[in-house]
């Protein structure tokens, strides 16, 4: 029997013998919709939800509905709390989301790590209830931004037409038609595809990655996604295709290129719906929200802690592409140096 249970039993016994004692409930502190945590601003999640429902809307930006299960995440949040979600520029890049914030006024951001770090001053610090479960190396210690989900760079391939590639070097063999998900100078996924190809013993060498794709181009093997039998992309995007009935698409993460990355969440300092923005973060980092990311084949930031607590959907987790080991995470200096190199050399 716990101390709390014992105390409850004792209270019942005293009440039965002596009559119920009158206790005065202390009034709750006023709601602060711009607080840095749920406890500090709202005391309970119910009060946070009530404040958010009064605002009635949430503005999100750069959230494609087919990316990491965001379609279901948005719909579930809207239905659960009765809040209208306005979706601005779903296909925008992280940089575009930041640049258009003054005009479109999003409440929240979903960004690449480097974009979040570079723009931390634009965000309102907020630590979700599950803050301690988010690894320290993928969150700002003051709460400006924090990883929500991540994945590994992978090779998705049509198993009917090509043999399973085991490395990026395999893609140079005849028969492979390879695509990147965009221009690596503009798209984070394409950039990380080049960087995964550049790894040597876990160390990025951007020139090596560029040379590989240049060889593919010269051999006529670099193409558009619509005509490719191999697509270099995040594992959660490649894995989504495998779930379609009759699909022969399969996914592998090369053992010599375990490049990973997280996408991070942040609240706009000038959010027009500050309570709804905070409720959105609490939802994303709840067990329910993290499992919805998992359902979209993304790896939730609280995943390790959820395994220990028994709250991770292990059946869904078993469907994820098997990782070759701990991910290599690029540092900000490595990312900046690689982007500078691409800016000068990719067009050639």
Mean pLDDT across all amino acids: 92
Find the CATH topology of the largest domain: D-Maltodextrin-Binding Protein, domain 2
Secondary-structure element string = HHHEHEHHEHEEHEEHEHEEHHEHHEH
Question: Which regions have little confidence, pLDDT < 50, spanning 5+ residues?
Answer: 1-20
Please report the first level of CATH classification, the CATH class of the largest domain. Answer: Alpha Beta
Radius of gyration, in angstroms, nearest whole number = 23 Å
Question: What proportion strand?
Answer: 15-25%
Main beta sheet, described?
8 strands, mixed
Structural class: alpha/beta
- Overall geometric form: elongated
Q: Into how many domains do the coordinates divide? A: 2
Number of helices: 15
CATH superfamily of the largest domain: Periplasmic binding protein-like II
Structure, explained:
The protein is of the alpha/beta class. It has 2 domains: 170 residues, 3-Layer(aba) Sandwich (D-Maltodextrin-Binding Protein, domain 2); 131 residues, 3-Layer(aba) Sandwich (D-Maltodextrin-Binding Protein, domain 2). The protein is 39% helix and 16% strand. The chain has 15 helices and 12 strands. The strands form 3 sheets. Strands 3, 4, 5, 8, 9, 10, 11 and 12 form an 8-stranded mixed beta sheet that branches. A two-stranded parallel sheet has the order 1-2. The protein has a two-stranded antiparallel sheet with strand order 6-7. A hairpin with a 2-residue loop joins β6 and β7. α3 crosses α11 and α8 crosses α9. The N terminus is likely disordered.
């Amino acid at each position: 029997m716990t101390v709390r249970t014992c105390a409850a039993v004792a209270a019942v016994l005293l009440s039965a013998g002596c009559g119920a004692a009158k206790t005065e409930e202390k009034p709750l502190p006023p709601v602060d919709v711009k607080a840095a945590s749920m406890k500090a601003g709202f005391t309970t999640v119910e009060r946070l939800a009530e404040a958010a429902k009064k605002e009635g809307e949430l503005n999100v930006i750069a959230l494609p509905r087919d990316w990491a299960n965001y379609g279901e995440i948005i719909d579930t949040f809207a239905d659960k709390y009765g809040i209208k979600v306005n979706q601005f520029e779903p296909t925008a890049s992280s940089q575009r989301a930041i640049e258009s914030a003054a005009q479109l006024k999003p409440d929240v951001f979903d960004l690449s790590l480097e974009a979040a770090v570079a723009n931390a001053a634009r965000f309102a610090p907020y630590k979700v209830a599950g803050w301690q479960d988010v690894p320290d190396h993928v969150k700002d210690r003051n709460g400006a931004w924090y990883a929500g989900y991540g994945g590994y760079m992978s090779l998705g391939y049509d198993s009917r037409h090509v043999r399973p590639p085991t490395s990026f070097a395999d893609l140079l063999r005849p028969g492979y038609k390879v695509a990147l998900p965009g221009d690596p100078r503009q798209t984070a996924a394409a950039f990380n595809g080049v960087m995964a190809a550049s790894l040597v013993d876990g160390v990025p060498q951007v020139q090596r990655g560029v040379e590989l794709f240049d060889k593919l181009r010269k051999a006529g093997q670099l193409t558009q996604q619509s005509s490719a039998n191999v697509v270099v992309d995040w594992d959660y995007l490649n894995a989504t295709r495998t779930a379609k009935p009759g699909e022969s698409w399969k996914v592998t993460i090369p053992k010599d290129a375990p490049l990973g990355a997280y996408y991070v969440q942040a609240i706009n300092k000038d959010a027009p719906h500050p309570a709804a923005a905070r409720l959105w973060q609490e939802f994303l980092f709840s067990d329910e929200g993290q499992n919805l990311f998992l359902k979209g084949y993304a790896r939730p930031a609280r995943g390790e802690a959820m395994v220990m607590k028994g709250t991770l959907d292990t059946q869904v987790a078993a469907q994820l592409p098997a990782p070759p080991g701990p991910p290599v995470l690029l540092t900000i200096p490595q990312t900046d140096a690689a982007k500078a190199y691409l800016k000068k050399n990719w067009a050639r």
